[in-house]
């Protein structure tokens, strides 16, 4: 029985069993400026990946390359397809929200639903209409009459009703208030995501999405600074609340970042640093906890703007 | 294969519908407004004229106005013949609006969504850049002219009906002779037969405008109109210099007629008459001789310039598709 399954698995194309997105030596230059500097990464199916980096680090360029919007050097395979030459086929299985508020101003809610239903083979019209009914959007409403938050609701209604295997979100909630932002990610998780789908998100508001991410990809100056699953990160990085009397001993263990809080030092340690560091050693220093993605990000990106 | 074909056609249908949603004002309301103005002004003048003077003025097109009040039968027959063959001429203003609409539509077609970045929404859907651009070509060359023709025919019929009823009330009954005249039924078909010729002549302009629309980062109008005109002016200046100092002559007139005029004026209906014998156009006393006009118009297809221009137009449309595929919108 197992061998039959193995045989079937072996016959499946790369895209089905392997990585949804895989890059090898991905490079993109704008003139002399290198935006993405020969990066390698793999994103397996069923993950929610946070692609996180400072402004100008190359994250949007990476996504644009994956969506076939720009030419690039190196190898990039999305669902087994080359986005440069097979974009038209790729877009049946990939969807993206590239930016907030990019729906055309003249578009009406009802027309938008009709249009996507007309051109997209994987669009579930009733799902979009159900979602729209739960908002203040009305079918005759034009995009130019909507608030920024409502535009995002419409966009999300259209995108969530598309049964895409890969969804790319580039700063989807930029400029929205906290209520819309929370609702956005909640809807995404409850009504859209399942094990057959993969989501790649970039955002500056890391703290709002870290609880939904399964994987992190830090990018800095066109290179991958960190690529790990959240479990790996939880095991590898440890935050310790060090009381003052142990601070000197703790600093000897070379924390990658430290800050003061309530008269204690909060230090961040990489247990995989050169020389090694055991959890036991750290627990002896003080209270141990998981670092937040935001703190890890700041520690990793130290010196980016220097 | 057939399902592939039908999804392709259905996508095209939605793409064209999208263009109509976006440009409803230009494609529908503008010709409707002009048609309404024609019916109101001419029809109103007509009724007022009858009521006040007791005679009928028939505008026979080309500025000729005939006055009727109790006529011999052969005269009635001639007037009926003119009315039956020429009633569509009254829609001429609509075909002055059409090129303006098509010109500015093409300029905006591949630029506006890049400017407001909504191109990223369209590109997030399974729509190829080829289909997107071709839907805009079809909208400019087929949908817009057909809508204008349909509105024009409706307006012309309304005016003709007004005239015939008015005449009948005044005792000059033209209804029967007009309805018996085959030209009355053929005129809309004659008008439609100009469409293929219009498409061939408009291709270089539509191609050029779409290319600029797909390429320019800003100031599309300036690029589209300015670039050919500045080139022409530079050539004329250069020609002046070489003629003066080297005794040579460049064919600047040829460049103006074969390149600049074709890429800027091709969307004007009737632009092809520039290549025809003008005298034949003026001599149209028995109403419009549509078969003669058609033959003369299609005769312009015998010159290679038309075809070279149309081929260049197709090449520029291909260029617009490639640019839209790879232009980085930041």
Account of the protein in words:
With 306 residues, chain A is of the alpha/beta class. Chain A folds into two domains: 10-221, 3-Layer(aba) Sandwich (Rossmann fold); 232-300. Chain A has 13 helices and 13 strands. Chain A has helices spanning 2-11, 14-17, 59-66, 87-90, 109-119, 125-133, 148-160, 178-192, 206-209, 230-236, 247-252, 279-283, 293-300; strands spanning 19-30, 33-44, 48-52, 73-78, 94-97, 166-170, 198-202, 215-220, 223-229, 237-242, 257-261, 264-270, 287-289. In chain A, helix 7 (148-160) runs parallel beside helix 8 (178-192). Mean pLDDT of chain A is 87; it is low at 1-16. Chain B is an all-alpha fold. Chain B has one domain (2-326). Chain B has 14 helices and two strands; from the N terminus they run ααββαααααααααααα. Chain B has helices at 2-22, 24-53, 73-86, 94-109, 112-115, 119-122, 129-169, 175-180, 182-215, 220-245, 252-265, 278-282, 290-299, 304-326, and strands at 56-59, 65-68. In chain B, strands 1-2 form a two-stranded antiparallel ribbon. The longest helix of chain B has 41 residues, at 129-169. The relative contact order of chain B is 0.13. The interface between A and B is medium-sized, with 31 and 26 residues.
Question: Topology of this structure?
Answer:
The complex is a heterodimer of chains A (306) and B (330).
Chain A: H1 2-11, H2 14-17, E1 19-30, E2 33-44, E3 48-52, H3 59-66, E4 73-78, H4 87-90, E5 94-97, H5 109-119, H6 125-133, H7 148-160, E6 166-170, H8 178-192, E7 198-202, H9 206-209, E8 215-220, E9 223-229, H10 230-236, E10 237-242, H11 247-252, E11 257-261, E12 264-270, H12 279-283, E13 287-289, H13 293-300
Helix pairs in contact in A: 6-7, 7-8
Chain B: H1 2-22, H2 24-53, E1 56-59, E2 65-68, H3 73-86, H4 94-109, H5 112-115, H6 119-122, H7 129-169, H8 175-180, H9 182-215, H10 220-245, H11 252-265, H12 278-282, H13 290-299, H14 304-326
Antiparallel strand pairs in B: 1-2
Helix pairs in contact in B: 1-2, 1-7, 2-4, 2-7, 3-9, 4-7, 4-9, 7-9, 7-14, 9-11, 9-13, 9-14, 10-11
């Amino acid at each position: 029985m197992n061998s039959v399954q193995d045989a079937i698995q072996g016959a499946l194309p790369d895209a089905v069993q392997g990585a949804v997105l895989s890059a090898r030596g991905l490079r993109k230059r704008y003139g002399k400026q290198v935006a993405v500097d020969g990066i390698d990464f793999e994103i397996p199916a069923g993950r929610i990946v946070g692609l996180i980096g400072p402004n100008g680090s190359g994250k949007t360029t990476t996504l644009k390359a994956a969506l076939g919007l720009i030419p690039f050097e190196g190898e990039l395979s999305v669902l087994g397809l080359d986005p440069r030459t097979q974009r038209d086929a790729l877009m049946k299985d990939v969807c993206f929200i590239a930016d907030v508020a990019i729906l055309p101003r003249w578009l009406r809610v009802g027309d938008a639903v009709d249009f996507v239903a007309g051109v997209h083979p994987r669009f579930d019209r009733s799902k979009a209409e159900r979602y729209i009914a739960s908002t203040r959007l009305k079918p005759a409403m034009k995009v130019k009459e909507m608030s920024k938050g409502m535009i995002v609701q419409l966009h999300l209604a259209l995108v969530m009703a598309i049964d895409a295997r890969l969804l790319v979100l580039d700063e989807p909630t930029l400029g929205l208030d906290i209520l819309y932002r929370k609702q956005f990610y909640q809807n995404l998780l409850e009504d859209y995501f399942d094990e057959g789908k993969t989501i790649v998100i970039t955002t500056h508001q890391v703290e709002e999405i870290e609880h939904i991410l399964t994987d992190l990809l830090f990018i800095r100056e066109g290179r991958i600074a960190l690529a790990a699953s959240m479990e790996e990160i939880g095991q590898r990085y440890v935050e310790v609340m060090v009381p003052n009397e142990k601070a000197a001993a703790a600093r000897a263990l070379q924390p990658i970042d430290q800050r003061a809080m309530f008269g204690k030092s909060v230090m961040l340690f990489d247990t995989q640093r050169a020389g090694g560091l055991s959890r036991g050693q750290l627990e002896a220093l003080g209270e141990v906890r998981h670092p937040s993605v935001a703190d890890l990000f700041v520690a990793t990106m130290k010196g980016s703007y220097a | 294969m057939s399902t592939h074909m039908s999804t392709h056609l259905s996508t095209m249908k939605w793409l064209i519908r999208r263009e109509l949603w976006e440009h409803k004002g230009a494609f529908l309301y503008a010709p409707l407004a002009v048609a309404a103005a024609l019916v109101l002004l001419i029809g109103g003048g007509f009724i007022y004229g009858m009521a006040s003077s007791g005679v009928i003025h028939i505008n026979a097109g080309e500025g000729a106005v005939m006055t009727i009040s109790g006529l011999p039968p052969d005269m009635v027959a001639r007037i009926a013949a003119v009315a039956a063959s020429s009633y569509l001429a009254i829609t001429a203003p609509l075909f002055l609006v059409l090129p303006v609409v098509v010109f500015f539509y093409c300029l905006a077609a591949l630029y506006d969504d890049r400017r407001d970045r909504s191109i990223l929404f369209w590109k997030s859907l399974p729509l190829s850049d080829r289909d997107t651009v071709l839907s805009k070509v079809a909208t400019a060359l087929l949908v817009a002219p057909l809508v204008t023709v349909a509105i024009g025919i409706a307006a012309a019929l309304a005016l003709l009906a007004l005239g015939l009823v008015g005449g009948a009330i005044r005792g000059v009954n033209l209804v029967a002779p007009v309805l018996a005249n085959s030209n009355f039924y053929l005129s809309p078909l004659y008008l439609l037969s100009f469409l293929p010729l219009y498409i061939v002549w408009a291709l270089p302009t539509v191609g050029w405008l779409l290319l600029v629309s797909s390429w320019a980062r800003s100031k599309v109008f300036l690029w589209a109109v300015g670039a050919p005109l500045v080139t022409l002016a530079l050539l004329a200046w250069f020609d002046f210099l070489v003629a003066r100092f080297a005794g040579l002559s460049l064919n600047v007139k040829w460049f103006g007629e074969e390149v600049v005029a074709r890429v800027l004026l091709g969307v004007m209906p009737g632009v092809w008459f520039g290549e025809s014998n003008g005298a034949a156009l003026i001599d149209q006393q028995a109403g419009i001789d549509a078969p003669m006009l058609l033959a003369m118009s299609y005769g312009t297809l015998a010159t290679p310039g038309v075809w070279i221009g149309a081929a260049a137009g197709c090449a520029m449309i291909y260029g617009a598709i490639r640019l839209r595929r790879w232009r980085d919108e930041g």
